Amino acid sequence: MESIRLFSMSGLFVLTLVALMIPASIGRGWQRCRFPAIYNFGDSNSDTGACNAAVAEIPSPYGQTFFKQPSGRASDGRLIIDFLAENLGLPYLSAYLDSIGTNFRHGANFATGGSCIQPACGYSPFNLATQVSQFIHFKARTTALYNQLCLNRKIPAHCIDLPRPDDFSKAMYTLDIGHNDLAYGYLQHRAEGRIRASIPNMLTLFCQAVHVLYSEGARIFWIHNMDPIGCLPFSVMMYQPKAHNVDRNGCVMPQNEMAKEFNRQLKDKVSQLRTQLPSAAFTYIDVYSAKYALISDAKQQGFVDPRTFCCGSYGHHGHHVDCGKKVNGTVYGSSCRYPSRHISWDGIHFTEAANLWVANRTLNGFFSDPPVSIDKACHRPQL
C-alpha cells in the first residue's frame, strides 16, 4: 500500500510517492459511508448561491465553464464542495438563503460569501454563529413539516424536497471558514501581533459552533483549514510586498505564516474536540498544503503563473477592475480565453480546474488527519 507524502525542500513543497504512510488499521475493511445529506458552513470558498441571493449579484462570466451561466459561485465553475457532493453521489447543495428552485432533501448550504467566524468582521452579517442558528431553525422547521405532512401516508409531492429527520445525525457537516477574519485584519491595517492575538478567540467561537451542531445531532465533521492567503494574486498586488517578504513562489510570507499559525491552533482544537465529543468523527483537511503544492508546481501541472488571474484586471496605480464589472452596460472585467490554465479565477477564488485538482488530492485522505478518504469519514479510527 502506498500514499502521497508532502515535504518541504528549501520552501518548495513536492509531492512524492513513498512507502506506507497511512496505518494499515485505518480504513482497512471499513465499509463506504452512506451519507444521506451534507450541511455546509463557510464563506465564498463554498458558497453556492447565498450571497448572490441575499447580498449582491455574482454576474457573468462567473459560472461560464460548467454551468454556462452565473450559478451563485465565486468561480468559473464548480467548487470543492461541489466535487465533494459528486464524490458522495449527492446533488449539489442548495443555498439556504436562496428561495428559488431549492431542494433540501440531501442537505443545505449555509455558507455565504464574505462570512467570518467572528461577528464583527465587517464583510457579512452571516457569521458562523448566525449560520449555525439558521441551521437550527432549518432543522426545527423542516422536521415539524415532515412530521406533519409526510408521516404515515404516501409521501406527497411537496415532501420530496424535505430532509428526513433521521438523516440529520447521519449527515456530513463540513466547515470551511476563517479566511475573511484574517483578511479583514489586514484590510484594517492591524499589526500582525494583534491579528495573531485574535486567533484563539476565533477558534473558541469555532469550537462553540461545533458543540452546538453536536447538540443538534451532528456526528460527522469534515473541517478544512486555512488557505495560503499570501499566495492570492490579490494579496500580492494589494500589499506590494518587499523582496524579503516574498517566497520563491511569489507568495507574501507574513500572511502565509499567519495562516499556518491559525492552522496549527485549529488542528489542536480539533484534537480537543475529539476528546470532548467522543461520539463524533472529525476529519481535519490540510487544504493549505494541497493548494500550496499546486501553486509550487503550477507549470508542471499545466497551469500558468499562479500570480496571474483569469477574470478582471489590475492595472497601474492600483486600479482594480472586478470580474464581470459593468460600466454603462459594457463588461470591462471579462475573462481570459482559457480559464482551465489558471489557478486563480478572479484574484481571490480558484478556477474550477484548480478546485478539481485540490479536490482530487483532499478527498482521498492524502492531506487528512486521520488519513481517511471522504467515503470513510463516518468511522472513528482508534489510532
Automatic annotation (TrEMBL):
Please give the superkingdom of this protein's source. Eukaryota
Q: What sections of the protein cross the membrane? A: none
Q: Would I find Zinc among this entry's keywords?
A: no
This protein's UniProt keywords:
Glycoprotein, Hydrolase, Signal
Question: Care to name a GO molecular-function term for this sequence?
Answer: hydrolase activity, acting on ester bonds
Among Gene3D superfamilies, the record links this protein to: SGNH hydrolase
Q: Where is the signal peptide?
A: 1-27
Q: Kindly indicate whether the keyword Secreted belongs to this entry.
A: no
Q: Which spans of this chain does the record mark as coiled coil?
A: none
Q: Which Pfam families match?
A: Lipase_GDSL
UniProt lists the family membership as follows: Belongs to the 'GDSL' lipolytic enzyme family.
- The protein in question is named GDSL esterase/lipase
Q: What is the lineage of its organism?
A: Eukaryota, Viridiplantae, Streptophyta, Embryophyta, Tracheophyta
